[in-house]
Design a protein that fits this description.
- The chain has about 200 residues and is an all-beta fold.
- It has no helices and 17 strands.
- About 0% of the residues lie in helices and about 60% in strands.
- It is elongated.
- The two termini are about 20 Å apart.
């Protein structure tokens, strides 16, 4: 989910000179419902989601009063759920390693990589850049990420989970992960008499 804007000249008394925005949302779910039954050597119920986003504004000239000259904003709101309310059994009687294992996992990933397919910020491109001008009494360059995400594993009141047997020990694991990686760069080359020359990245 990417947004890219290139502007050449703006003059305003209010509002944003250049704006790029992305919105990402959704629900990912893996479930074993009432009455369902699974029997195997190993049982894994996994739900995983990855949100990828980025944006770029290159504002070559801007002169604004009382407003942000360049604004990039990203909103991510995602949920991941793994739910079991049925019967799960991993109970092979053999002594083979890595059997008799039940795993419930929910993984929610959000990633904003460096621009330019690079691994470090020094080589990355600018997400937000204003080459000249700026704002009076306001931030001239702003990049904002608003990320809300959940990852949950639930075991219902009707669930029956067995890992192992009388002759072989088993293992059970429930794992919920929220992973966020967000990289961005902001730059302003201010010109003229402006009281605030800032590049904000939050």
């Amino acid at each position: 989910n990417d947004a890219n804007v290139i502007t050449f000249f703006f003059f305003f008394f209010a509002g944003s000179g250049a704006l790029a925005k992305t919105n990402t949302g959704g629900m990912t779910k893996a479930s074993l419902g009432d009455g369902a039954s699974v029997t195997a050597d190993r049982v894994a119920v996994t739900a995983e989601h990855t949100a990828l986003f980025n944006g770029k504004i290159d504002n070559l000239a801007a002169s604004l009063v009382g407003a942000s000259g360049v604004d990039v904003s990203h909103t991510v709101d995602t949920d991941v759920l793994t739910s079991v309310n049925g019967t799960v059994a991993a109970n092979d009687d053999s002594s083979t390693m890595d059997k008799d294992v039940v795993t419930l996992k929910a993984v929610n990933n959000t990633k904003q990589n460096w621009l330019g397919s690079v691994s470090n910020g020094d080589d990355a491109g600018w997400n937000v850049r204003s080459a000249s001008g700026g704002a009076l009494n306001a931030s001239a360059v702003a990049e904002t990420d608003a990320i809300t995400q959940t990852a949950n594993v639930t075991v219902g009141s009707q669930a029956n989970i067995t890992a192992g047997s009388a002759s072989a020990a088993g293992s059970f694991a429930a794992d919920a992960q929220n992973n966020i990686t967000a990289h961005n760069k902001a730059k302003i080359n201010a010109g003229g008499a402006i009281s605030v020359a800032e590049a904000d990245s939050t």
